[in-house]
Design brief:
By secondary structure, this protein is mainly alpha-helical. The chain has one domain. The protein has eleven helices and no strands.
């Protein structure tokens, strides 16, 4: 199991698609937020500028975490596809069991998620603190920030596995390219819904694992409770809008991850050999 975990960590941390889309592309958007979009805060009064800037930076950090780890999920979703030739054989005749395999992948993905999440934290801290705005920003609550990264890695891995197993078993590999991008698409959708919506109820945040994970990360960076939707939030007036509960957010993320993992454990036993050429578009 140890060797498999180390192999998974090395394999993903050196994956060109993950480095390109998950890390460098996210870095590009953090740069845009820090050096280009931040000019929108120039008209904010000095008395509340620091608070407004922290809120602004937090929203970008939430994006960085959810996008980069959604990119990891997209990479993970291809894993089983290229292992369908060996996994059924190993499960049946070898010492590897579905549970051991999943456990190894989950542990490896948590390590990879932590590395990526800490990189996003460092990128956000450095770029938003050195763009000439005169405010040094950093995660106000590091333990919660790390918790958010680990929970995001757990959920994204379980979701990616489920999507890939469904493709292999039911939809066919011709749908692989579309289905693998579902985590990224959902990450974008739920992020912008939170940023621009004016919901007054926290229920959508608790029901959506993407919202829950973003908000946990945001609370870790901001250090205080965040509103149920950013659209009705005014910097320096946090008490004027309802806030989310960190406990409920963590519970939501955990429940989603556990439920999907249980489904993965059941379905992975049913995977069979598929011809990789089925996935070719042309």
């Amino acid at each position: 199991m140890k060797k498999l975990v180390l192999y998974i960590v090395k394999r993903f941390l050196t994956s060109k698609p993950l480095i390109g889309w998950g890390i460098l592309f996210t870095f590009f958007w953090i740069f845009v937020g820090a050096y280009l979009e931040s000019s929108s805060l120039n008209s904010v009064p000095t008395s509340i500028f620091k608070e407004a800037y922290y809120t602004y930076t937090t929203s970008w950090f939430m994006f960085a975490i959810i996008y980069s780890l959604s990119g990891l999920a997209t990479t993970v979703s291809y894993t089983i596809t290229y292992q369908t030739g060996s996994l059924p054989f190993l499960f049946k005749f070898g010492k590897l069991t579905p549970r051991k395999y999943l456990a190894s992948v989950y542990v490896g993905m948590e390590i990879v998620s932590l590395v990526i999440g800490l990189l996003m934290t460092a990128f956000t801290t450095i770029l938003f603190s050195t763009n000439g705005k005169g405010v040094f920003v950093y995660p106000a609550n590091i333990p919660i920030t790390i918790l958010a990264i680990l929970l995001a890695g757990f959920f994204m891995t379980s979701l990616a596995f489920l999507l890939d197993i469904v493709v292999i078993k039911y939809l066919g590999l011709k749908n692989q390219n579309f289905v693998s991008f579902i985590p990224l698409i959902l990450g974008f959708i739920f992020y912008f819904l939170y940023i621009y919506s004016t919901f007054k109820s926290a229920i959508p945040d608790y029901l959506s694992p993407f919202n829950a994970l973003m908000l946990i990360a945001g609370i870790g960076f901001y250090g205080k409770a965040l509103p149920v939707s950013m659209g009705q939030f005014t910097a320096g007036m946090e008490t004027s809008v309802p806030s989310v509960s960190l406990t409920y957010l963590v519970a939501s993320a955990l429940i989603w991850g556990i439920v999907l993992s249980v489904i993965d454990t059941v379905l992975i036993k049913k995977i069979t050999l598929r011809n990789i050429n089925e996935g070719k578009i042309f």
